[in-house]
Amino acid sequence: xxxxxxxxxxxVGSSRSGTTMLSRMLGSHSQIHTFEELHFFNLLxxxxxxxxxxxxVLNRLFEVERNASFFDxxxxxxxxxxxxxxxxxxxxxxxxxxxxxxxxxxxAGKNGKITPCEQTPMNLFYxxxxxxxxxxxxxxxxxxxxxxxxxxxxxxxxVGELGNRHIPKNVINRLRYTYDPILHSILWKRSIRRxxxxxxxxxxxxxxxxxxLKKSENTLKDIFAFLKIDYQSGVSKTVKKGSSHFKEGGNxxxxxxxxxxxxxxxxxxxxxICEMICKSEMLAMGYQLKGTRANFxxxxxxxxxxxxxxxxxxxxxxxxxxNILSAVYRRIKK
Length: 334
Prior knowledge:
With about 325 residues, this protein is of the alpha/beta class. It is about 55% helix and about 5% strand.
């Protein structure tokens, strides 16, 4: 790996766009270690960067990564010793802003890899923070048809029954009852607009979810060329997980055959809402409009319910963020 090779990889995009699938593909490469969705910036309290607070953040990152426990309410300190070692190293040699970088390289090394690959979608709204604290990072922004994203969000509560990961019942209910086609369409739109801000920067690469499935090998070769890492055959045949529609372990072909499953999952009114909100960005990304007719009574109900769904989502996510208002602001600011 030469000095110009990107040292770390961040897969970003709208939630439910395929970040997990792509990260698992890259993670089958001999030098790349992929992580769970760490949500580092949700955990970090910018106003409290004491050693105690940083150790707590690191311990939580270890729990998420090693036990897939992001949904777990555990506040144990199983990894306090390792966390303390990293924090002491930072306080003596580097800046606290390098905490995230230190963690991902430490954990990648523990797994015998040299290139960490993180896949939290919302990191799209923290690009500048990552550029400031990481040495030579690369960003892969994955884009998916917003109607398919909406269908995945609608069925997201089923992920626990389709995979092997335990998701607490209260989280399943939160995912199920805070689904809102208006809010999720707006979030997709904001993600696309944010990605347009960075394209075509030399360290920022756009890829479409559909291309990853339909032209896996060629698309992945292009991604590895961007990363300046030698391509290895077989990375496109990774088992999938985290789907809202398919049992864990489905292959590319089974998912590819259902790329337009949204036609069966969404109502005409949901499709209408999505296309109305996302029209300009959809066309810019090459997605054609279906142009459905809507039931305007149903749309009126969605409009009336959206503020309540929004407040409910904020309230139910408070404990997963050090500052949820700051996270929301990042999504809506231009």
